[in-house]
Amino acid sequence: MLRLGVPSKGRLMEDTFAWFARRGITLGRAGGTREYAGRVEGADGLTLVLLSAAEVPRELAAGRIDLGVTGSDLLRETMAGWRSDVTEVTPLGFGHADLILAVPACWRDVEHLDDFADVTRDFRATHGRRLRIATKYHRLVRAFLAAEGVADYQLVDSKGATEGTVANGTAEAIADITSSGETLRANHLKVLPDALIHASQATLFANRARLSDPKLGALVERLA
């Protein structure tokens, strides 16, 4: 029996159900709207598992599900060396959001990533500490900034509304997911145009080790 993990609520679940329906596979809850057991029609031997989007990478890596739908940002952030355990089957074309670096709008001399790198060096020389960047995406942000040669910073973990950390004085810049940018502008932040860390969208992934199963291989070929 193959197991497919899908986000258990919200627009992401609805769009995922619609995507599979266009390919002849009907997914749904087994009972009412609060039921977490799933049902599948149109694909023999496939079981639906309803999870949070954040749980899908863990369950894929552990082999407890064979296929899973989650944001590409969540999977890359959660799993170091994810390509050894998981393969990307296909992007689904919805759930788009960009992980970006944003700074206070009043920083008029900071319009690009090179300017930001200069500010981080000046900040450390002036204040005797590293400039703080609030984020929930430590692995992705650290890898991006290392590749761009930015080193004089400190990542601080954001548990709530990341956009408010600059106004609250707990960070000088942020790295966060945004769709329209409206919340950033409302908090007097601006996106650096060359600091797109990751363009995320909902993506179907498969457990790499399980791809040797002919049934999973056939299903992946059908969906991809």
TrEMBL record:
List, for all copies, the residue spans of the domain called ATP phosphoribosyltransferase catalytic.
53-223
Catalytic activity annotation: 1-(5-phospho-beta-D-ribosyl)-ATP + diphosphate = 5-phospho-alpha-D-ribose 1-diphosphate + ATP
What Pfam family is a match, any one? HisG
Record CDD domains: PBP2_HisGL3 (cd13593)
This protein's source sits in the domain of life called Bacteria
Q: What name does UniProt use for this protein?
A: ATP phosphoribosyltransferase
Which keywords does this Swiss-Prot/TrEMBL entry list?
Amino-acid biosynthesis, Glycosyltransferase, Histidine biosynthesis, Transferase
The record's section on PROSITE patterns has:
ATP_P_PHORIBOSYLTR (PS01316)
Q: Name its species.
A: Paracoccus suum
Pathway it works in: Amino-acid biosynthesis; L-histidine biosynthesis; L-histidine from 5-phospho-alpha-D-ribose 1-diphosphate: step 1/9
**GO CC annotations, alphabetized:** cytoplasm
Q: Name one GO biological process term.
A: L-histidine biosynthetic process
Physiological role: Catalyzes the condensation of ATP and 5-phosphoribose 1-diphosphate to form N'-(5'-phosphoribosyl)-ATP (PR-ATP). Has a crucial role in the pathway because the rate of histidine biosynthesis seems to be controlled primarily by regulation of HisG enzymatic activity.
Q: What is its EC number?
A: 2.4.2.17
**Kind of enzyme, top EC level?**
transferase
Single GO molecular function: ATP phosphoribosyltransferase activity
